[in-house]
Amino acid sequence: MPPIDTNDPTDRTVDATTTVAFVCVRNAGRSQMATAFAERERAERNLENDIAIVTGGTDPADDVHDVVVDALDEVGLDVNGRNPRRIDESVLAECDVVATMGCSTLDLDGVENVDWDLEDPGEKELAEVKAIRDDVEQRVIELFDELSERIK
User: Fold this and answer.
1) Distance, CA of 114 to chain centre
2) Is 47 in contact with 148 (CB distance < 8 Å)?
């Protein structure tokens, strides 16, 4: 079965038991970082057939922030060439977990909503973005620790 296209919030090609969405307004920074770390965690934990990952924004930017691309590149994650995408509530309503990046008031019935209070890295210097990146990484690891326990 082909892997899910995490840059396309409507791609449902994986028969996953759990769908996780990472959402922010522009889908150009925080949610892209979270998605990249989630893809890494999913692969390292051999959960490709158990967890689907989607990402998007309510008002997507034209490109992923250059500083985010650089910060992720430093830790071996390549998001160069990814495009921010729009995601709507109908897609999110089908998810099991929706993580927003400190910029949402989503309340979806039957969906676990978590809001991570994260600064927008878009206009920040690389040193500041690294701190946000590290925070996002830790939150994604903790989320995947929880999801791994649920899946067992």
Assistant:
1) 12
2) yes
Q: End-to-end CA distance of the chain, in Å?
A: 22
How many Å apart are CA 148 and CA 26, to the nearest integer?
Answer: 29
Q: Tell me the pTM.
A: 0.89
Model confidence at 10, in pLDDT bands (50, 70, 90)? very low
Q: Which amino acid is at 94?
A: E
Query: Which pLDDT score is estimated for 16?
Result: 61
Regarding beta strands 18-24 and 97-100, do their DSSP bridges make them parallel or antiparallel, or are they unpaired? Answer: parallel
Looking up tokens 């970082």, which residue turns up? Answer: 33
Q: d(Cα 23, Cα 89) in Å, to the nearest integer?
A: 11
SS3 content of the chain, % helix, strand, coil (to 5): 35, 15, 50
Residue located via tokens 């040193």: 127
- DSSP type of residue 43: H
The CATH number of 18-144 is: 3.40.50.2300
Using alpha carbons, list the distances in angstroms from residue 51 to 30, 38, 77, 83: 20, 10, 19, 22
Tell me the H-state helices in 83-125.
89-92
Q: Where are the domains of the chain?
A: 18-144
